[in-house]
Amino acid sequence: MLGLYLHRDSPVHAFPVGWKLAALAVAATGLFFVSNPVAIGAALVGALGLFALARLPLGAVLGQIRPLLPVLVLLFAVQAAFAGWETGAATAGRLALLVLLASLVTLTTRASDTIDALERGLGWLRPLGVNAGKVSLMLALTIRLIPVLLDLVQEIRMAQRARGVERSALALLVPLLVKTMRMADHLSDALEARGYDPR
Length: 199
Prior knowledge:
mainly alpha
């Protein structure tokens, strides 16, 4: 599950891990204060430019956004119906941008480097009783699991389409929850098998 990293000789890959994570956190926070769809569209173009700078194949970019398309369309339609097309475009654009940026980090950063950087960055919380190792692992897995969950959504959609199941939020949510819980169980077993100490 943690094998998404694609090695390339690029400035994005060489950029310090801590700065990548800090930039992702700032971008995720700042997006909530941006409601102009044009500005969000410009940010999306910038994110695609970073993928090009990282010398990642086009298939890798499309692979991150393709599973998200049905969700984006549904999100835009709902928001546009109740709050106007500008709000719908901004909301869908925010989600697409967040997924692209999180995917860029995981595609250009080894999982072990991410966990180490987070643990170092959270070291100052140890005197407060915070286990920096556990928190860093949780954050790294959260970032990594965003594209994995999108792949699950696509997999469920394809299976439902093949069976002729009616496409609805409930029909998607139930199997998604089951698969997510099963994946979390497998992850827990894998960590235990590798001797991870949660203390």
